[in-house]
Specification:
Blueprint (H helix, E strand, L loop, with lengths): L5 E5 L7 E3 L4 E3 L8 E9 L5 H18 L10 H22 L3 E8 L9 E9 L25 H6 L2 E6 L3 E9 L43 H19 L5 H12 L6 E6 L7 E7 L5 H10 L12 E4 L5 H4 L3 E10 L2 E11 L6 H38 L10 E8 L9 E9 L2 E9 L4 H19 L4 H12 L2 H13 L15 E13 L2 E11 L5 E3 L5 E3 L18 E5 L4 E5 L1 H4 L2 E2 L2 E2 L5 H7 L6 H15 L8 E8 L1
Antiparallel strand pairs: 1-4, 2-3, 4-5, 5-6, 6-8, 7-8, 9-10, 9-13, 11-12, 12-13, 14-25, 15-16, 16-17, 17-18, 18-21, 19-20, 19-22, 22-25, 23-24
Helix pairs in contact: 1-2, 4-5, 4-8, 5-8, 8-9, 9-10, 9-11
């Protein structure tokens, strides 16, 4: 327990507190360049003791700085100390409860404040992988109150002069800044209670090093920073932006990567094609300034000359210091990909006259990566939209209500940018008949969509012409073998880059179908529903009786489109009140968990057997949930399900 705090106390002349950003020490907060007279850092375990240890750490650091006559330390009032202790306690509690990892706390006294401003106390709290909940009971002396969730960031926003959050791939840092008064009596150090774990380093005053003179911002950057930090930053940016298919996520990541590593604030506008650009993202190192910054930016979007083709241009520092912060250097860049302008990036760094050349080059490289990610996201979104529109056109807008029958449908295609191969339909066929179909085209994408777009209207036409179930499948099989269908499928494959399809359209012309006809009747004063159905290469339907008994109906027959002269046979039976017919595609039966499939050892029948007495919707939900729970991974094939229950 004596190793609860492992810390060091140092003084520095430039950017402290800081964090490693790709091997480069850069300020974490939104307060620009700082010169600290002293700083201290502690590592705390992710346990219920962390909050009380953090309070003692801050108290001890302030007391030690006063004892060593650190510049401006004698200006820290009891109020400032109490506020800092309260806020660090809240932030550490949040970090431990929501992340459950070790926590780093950094406390620094900033004496490099802008002209006319008092020195300030800056505190950072960093956690790692914020994904799990704290385990373990709170210590007796804490009473458990802190571990109910605390007050979140509301106290920070109310008390701190400025605060912000920095996200990285494996950590999150929340910082706050509290101004130190012009003159004050030193605070009274908090004495550790009996049994408390006092920081071992609290008496090591000799470790505080006198600050060196503050350096003036230069036009050139450190060569070591250029070689290592820039490459690491770009590598991380490429890694995070790669594979992002949402342009809102791209702009959000871009803002978090830039601020506070290279800028104190940034904004991204996206071109809309017809009309003014849209302000998509605003990011500020001080979150309390973010809304004010957005309000100012919405009134004055940057208008870059046509000659700005991806290069960074010096931009006037905006005039509203309340929103942007104190003066500094700003840059504007057009986001260009494939010769097309997608938007504009504007960013600024306080305390600089001009951005260093190396930083300008780095920002231009970063901008190109953001533009490429935006272009990819827009292409994906466009393809996904086309797919959704196509999918809606291939499926019925609703299913017909059959007298005496309750129905429910589940349909979940796996592809976001290609139409699924599964389809369904329930429709009236005239003369007191209602027809239903559940089909699965082999493959997906445009080829499968062409077949689906042909089959569903053909089925409706043949059924309404009065053909029986077997005859409908016979004629549908013949239509799939016609040359015109093969040409249409091949054309769809070529349009999608499928030049390697075999003659006749390949497997996309093969189709499994479960097709049936329902006729409500009355027999002996009791209502029944006569069902005639046939399966062509499709998973056989299951019939659930009120006592929980499950049996298969229909017999397996060959896929449609394989043999031109195939003849299909149907089976007829009566659905009595309370009986349920479950029809599924192979996305249900063949869903995998390792080497096992969902329907191994009659798994689907076992699930259905437990659904006696349920409504059609409840049966569909129970089976869908069982498929979800069968494997960790989601289904890798389209999934469709039709439930018909006689009332």
């Amino acid at each position: 327990m004596t190793e609860l705090l492992r810390s060091r106390t140092v003084g520095t002349s430039s950017s402290t507190p800081s964090a490693s950003a790709g091997g480069v020490a850069l300020p974490v907060g939104g307060f620009g360049p700082v010169r600290t007279s002293a700083s201290a850092r502690a590592s705390l375990p992710g346990s219920p003791l962390a909050a009380s240890a953090a309070r003692r750490f801050v108290r001890a650091a302030l007391a030690e700085w006063i004892a060593l006559d650190v510049p401006a330390a004698n200006r820290i009032t009891d109020r400032v100390a109490d506020e800092a202790v309260l806020l660090v306690s809240e932030l550490v509690t949040n970090a431990v409860v929501h992340a459950g990892t070790a926590v780093e706390v950094c406390c620094a006294l900033d004496v490099s404040s802008h002209e006319g401003e008092a020195p300030s106390l800056i505190v950072e709290v960093t956690d790692h992988h914020p994904t799990r909940v704290l385990r373990g009971d709170p210590p007796p002396d804490e009473g458990g109150a802190e571990y109910a969730g605390g007050h979140g960031l509301r106290l920070v926003a109310e008390i701190a002069e400025a605060w912000g959050t920095t996200y990285r791939r494996a950590s999150k840092t929340v910082w706050f800044q509290v101004s130190v008064s012009a003159a004050a009596e030193p605070p009274v150090p908090e004495e550790p209670a009996a049994g408390d774990l006092a920081p071992q380093w609290a008496s090591r005053g000799t470790e505080i090093v006198a600050p060196a003179p503050r350096r003036t911002p230069a036009r050139r950057a450190d060569p070591e920073w250029t070689r290592h930090g820039a490459l690491s930053f770009l590598a991380e940016a490429s890694d995070l932006l790669a594979g992002q298919f949402d342009e809102e996520m791209v702009t959000s990541l871009a803002g978090q990567l830039l601020v506070p590593r290279l800028a104190d604030w940034c904004a991204i506008w996206l071109d809309t094609g017809s009309g003014p650009p849209r302000l998509a993202r605003v990011w500020h190192a001080s979150e309390s300034r973010m809304e004010g910054l957005r309000q100012v930016l919405e009134k004055e979007p940057p208008l870059l000359p046509a000659t700005a083709r991806g290069g960074a241009l010096d931009w006037p520092w905006p005039a509203d210091p309340a929103a942007y912060g104190p003066g500094g250097a700003a840059l504007a860049c057009r986001l260009i990909a494939g010769g097309r302008a997608l938007g504009t990036l504007l960013l600024g760094r306080a305390g600089l006259v001009r951005m260093p050349d190396e930083v300008v080059g780095l920002i231009e490289d970063f901008t190109r990566r953001v533009a490429l990610a935006l272009a990819s996201a827009r292409r994906y979104t466009r393809q996904a939209t086309i797919s959704r529109v196509l999918q809606r056109g291939l499926l019925p807008s609703g299913i017909a209500r059959i007298p005496g029958v309750e129905s429910a449908v589940v349909y979940e295609p796996t592809g976001d940018i290609s139409a699924g191969g599964d389809f369904y339909d329930v429709f009236p066929a005239g003369d007191g008949r209602w027809c239903f179909v559940l089909g699965d085209v082999c493959g997906n994408g445009p080829e499968a969509a062409v077949v689906t777009g042909l089959v569903r209207p053909w089925l409706r036409l043949l059924a309404r012409e009065g053909y029986g179930v077997g005859e409908v499948l016979d004629r549908l099989n013949q239509l799939l073998g016609e040359e015109a269908v093969g040409e249409a499928v091949e054309a769809a494959g070529g349009a999608d880059g499928g030049a390697g399809l075999p003659p006749g359209g390949g497997s996309a012309r093969f189709l499994s179908v479960l097709y049936g006809e329902l006729v409500p009747l009355r027999q002996g004063g009791e209502a029944v529903v006569r069902c005639t159905l046939a399966s062509a290469g499709h998973p056989l339907p299951l019939l659930l009786q009120p006592d929980g008994t499950v049996r298969t109906v229909a017999v397996p027959q060959i896929l449609l489109g394989v043999v031109d002269e195939a003849a299909y046979e149907s089976e007829t039976f009566d659905l009595a009140p309370g009986e349920t017919l479950l029809c599924v595609t192979d996305g249900v039966t063949e869903h995998r968990s390792g080497s096992r499939q969902f329907d191994d050892e009659d798994g689907l029948a076992a699930v259905l057997g437990g659904c006696a007495g349920m409504s059609a919707r409840e049966v569909a939900e129970r089976v869908r949930r069982a498929v979800d729970e069968f494997a960790v991974e989601p289904p890798d094939d389209d999934l469709a399900m039709l439930v018909l229950r006689a009332l």
